[in-house]
Design brief:
single chain; about 230 residues; about 0% strand
């Protein structure tokens, strides 16, 4: 029991750190601050998300909480995929990216099925899980499409990075709210981060398509496929 309490404490602390880093990284780009602040925040975000996921696994198993387990895997995919888009500037997607995408599609199917099952059982939390399954599956399919292309231009690559990192933030915040607070109707609590932050993702991608580039955005890679 003491060990699980320690794992829970680490889970909470790293969750707060991940959320603080995520909002710092987003603010740095939105307010057009120095690019180094975005990079530093990202370097804090990724390992803390990793710890959130690792600590969520034993907690989910101990509590037989399939919802938490699936959300943890979903968050891990989003963060790792988003990081790959940020660091893979002049390289085309590779085997690792395709493997992550295929794995996420399998997890997305599980999220949809389990979400539907608990919805039929009267648990509205299944709505959030099914929605996350649709999001995860859609992003994974997009990753597979990207993997068939040459090295991505800056705008779609950065757009994919922002979409996945902000989606990982949504998943982390949702898990925190669900496990920390209660309200009626509960489904509003589970969907609130998605409802509030999805317009931000749409706004950022529209800015990129219009050619509004954040400070520090790298030049487009040269044409031609480079192994990833």
């Amino acid at each position: 029991m003491a060990l699980l309490d320690a794992v829970l404490a680490l889970h909470v602390v790293t969750g707060f750190a991940a959320l603080a880093a995520a909002f710092t990284a987003f603010a740095a780009k939105t307010l057009d601050l120095a690019h180094r602040w975005h990079i530093r925040a990202g370097r804090v975000f990724l390992p803390n998300v990793g710890l959130v996921v690792l600590t969520a696994l034993p907690l989910a198993i101990a509590a037989s909480d399939v919802f938490l387990l699936l959300i943890a895997v979903f968050t891990a995919y989003l963060a790792s995929s988003g990081w790959r888009y940020a660091t893979r500037r002049h390289r085309a997607p590779g085997t690792l990216d395709r493997t992550l995408a295929v794995a996420m599609i399998a997890v997305a199917i599980a999220m949809l099925l389990f979400g539907a099952a608990i919805m039929l059982g009267g648990d509205g939390k299944g709505i959030a899980l099914a929605l996350f399954g649709l999001i995860g599956g859609s992003l994974a399919i997009a990753d597979l499409r990207f993997a068939r292309q040459e090295a991505l231009r800056s705008e779609p690559r950065i757009g994919a990075h922002l979409t996945r990192m902000l989606s990982a933030t949504i998943a982390t915040l949702t898990a925190f709210l669900v496990t920390s607070f209660t309200m009626e109707p509960a489904v509003l609590l589970w969907l609130a981060p998605t409802i509030l932050m999805t317009p931000v993702i749409v706004w950022w991608n529209r800015r990129l398509r219009r050619g509004v580039k954040p400070r520090g955005m790298p030049r487009e890679p040269q044409h031609g496929r480079v192994p990833g």
